[in-house]
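Below is a filled-in request sheet from our internal design queue. Each sheet records the structural input a requester submitted and the sequence that came back. We keep these sheets so that new team members can see what a complete request looks like end to end.

REQUESTER: design group, bay 2
PRIORITY: normal
MODE: inverse folding
CHAIN LENGTH: 332
BACKBONE (tokenized):
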């Protein structure tokens, strides 16, 4: 019976019994494998934790956990649109009055409403009204109606000085709209020019600054003449030591405009030379109001820097002698 059982099991299926030494070697090998596996699992776990920590650090911090002054410094870098979005998460911080006051004064440096009681002002609401007024002014065909929005909302007082301060302190309003409005309000133009300081400023550079604030008209009419007359008075008041008269500055301004067009227009084949400009200017300016060195410096400034009007500044680097704006083309 025992022999039959022995023959029924194929040889090789039952492993031979190992000795004690072999069993210990196998056990130690298995333990080493298990230790190595545990070590790998620990390393992977540490790596995962480090990655999670790095991801948490890369995420935007919760501003509510920061000191208020630090959180406000972070939010101060946002524009109005982003600040409104931030208020969905940090309503109290993003609605801070100081933040919105900074946004208002950055885009509109002056408004009559700023002088009201600071404790009652809600600058977020003021910003929204100023923004709405700006859109209305820029889209309204009649600039006077656009400005009436600011006046009706109490943002700007209906006084020439207050309106001039408001217009002078913002670049959000379209210059063409402002020009159309100012053509019928010489009282406001007087204040706008008086705000500018041309002390120790070369005449062509002063003209560029002037036209950056007050856009020249499209025609060679009385408005342009009034602008240059007022500019000439202000320039002489700021530079009494130059010994130049208002009339001589006025003539030089027209000479510089003519020179700007001559050098820039592609239709003028024979450009005015420096000698010709000096000769023509010397004959037009009152005697004793300048010299050839001054006229030569004026020519060099326009030749090197381009037009004396604001709209050419963006063309100076590339093609400053190929563009003629509408209001300078009238001199052709």
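RETURNED SEQUENCE:
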């Amino acid at each position: 019976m025992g022999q039959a059982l022995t023959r029924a099991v194929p040889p090789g299926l039952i492993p031979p019994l190992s000795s004690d030494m072999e069993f210990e070697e196998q056990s130690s090998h298995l333990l080493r494998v298990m230790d190595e596996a545990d070590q790998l699992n620990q390393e992977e776990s540490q790596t995962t934790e480090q990655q999670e920590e790095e991801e948490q650090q890369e995420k935007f911090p919760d501003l509510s956990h920061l000191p208020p002054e630090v959180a406000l410094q972070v939010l101060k870098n946002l524009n109005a649109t982003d600040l409104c979005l931030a208020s969905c998460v940090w309503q109290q911080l993003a609605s801070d009055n100081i933040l919105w006051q900074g946004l208002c004064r950055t885009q509109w440096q002056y408004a009559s409403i700023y002088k009201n009681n600071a404790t009652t002002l809600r600058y977020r609401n003021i910003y929204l009204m100023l923004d709405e007024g700006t859109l209305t002014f820029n889209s309204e065909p009649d600039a006077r109606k656009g400005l009436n929005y600011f006046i009706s909302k109490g943002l700007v007082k209906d006084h020439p000085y207050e309106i001039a301060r408001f217009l002078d302190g913002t670049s959000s309003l379209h210059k063409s709209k402002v020009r159309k409005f100012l053509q019928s309000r010489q009282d406001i133009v007087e204040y706008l020019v008086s705000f500018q300081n041309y002390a120790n400023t070369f005449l062509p550079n002063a003209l560029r600054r002037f036209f950056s604030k007050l856009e020249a008209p499209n025609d060679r009419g009385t408005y342009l003449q009034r602008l240059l007359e007022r500019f000439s008075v202000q320039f002489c008041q700021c530079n009494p030591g130059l010994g130049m008269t208002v009339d001589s500055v006025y003539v030089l301004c027209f000479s510089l405009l003519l020179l700007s067009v001559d050098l820039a227009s592609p239709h003028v084949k024979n450009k005015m030379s420096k000698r010709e400009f000096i000769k023509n200017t010397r004959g037009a300016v009152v005697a004793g109001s300048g010299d050839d060195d001054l006229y030569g410096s004026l020519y060099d400034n326009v030749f090197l820097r381009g037009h004396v009007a604001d709209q050419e500044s963006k063309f100076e680097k590339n093609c400053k002698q190929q563009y003629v704006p509408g209001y300078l083309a009238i001199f052709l």
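SHEET NOTES:
- Residues 312-332 have pLDDT under 50 and may be disordered.
- The first helix runs from residue 2 to 8.
FILED BY: M.R.
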